[in-house]
Amino acid sequence: MSKRDEKIAAMIAEAKKLNLPISDDLITKVAIGLGSVLYNKDTATVACGQTTELEIVKNNYLKKKLALSNSDSELDAAIKEICEQLGSANRNKYRVHFYALLAMKFNKTDIYA
Hints:
The chain has helices spanning 3-17, 24-34, 51-65, 72-86, 95-105. The two termini are 24 Å apart. 59% of the residues lie in helices and 0% in strands. The protein is an all-alpha fold and 113 residues long. The protein has a single domain, classed as Jann4075-like (Recoverin, domain 1), CATH 1.10.238. Helix 4 crosses helix 5. The protein has five helices and no strands.
């Protein structure tokens, strides 16, 4: 099993553990899309307590990747919702899950087709 396959399997297992409603296929496609981000402990997770991190999610993922033109307040609210969904006690809010949930929320999973 390749290193990427191991990471994807770990992300699928973690999603099941957290009871996240994300398909294995979507996790796989988001993980492949993230590329090398998966292998760095710092970039593989989203720090919900860091404003700069959340701005990166909003600008680079929601606005650029998903091409959303919603208001900043609406995008910020969606990010906050995903932070809460992943749990305040959960120290590892993996970017794969975070992005998959955001794509699902905004009905943009087709970009991973």
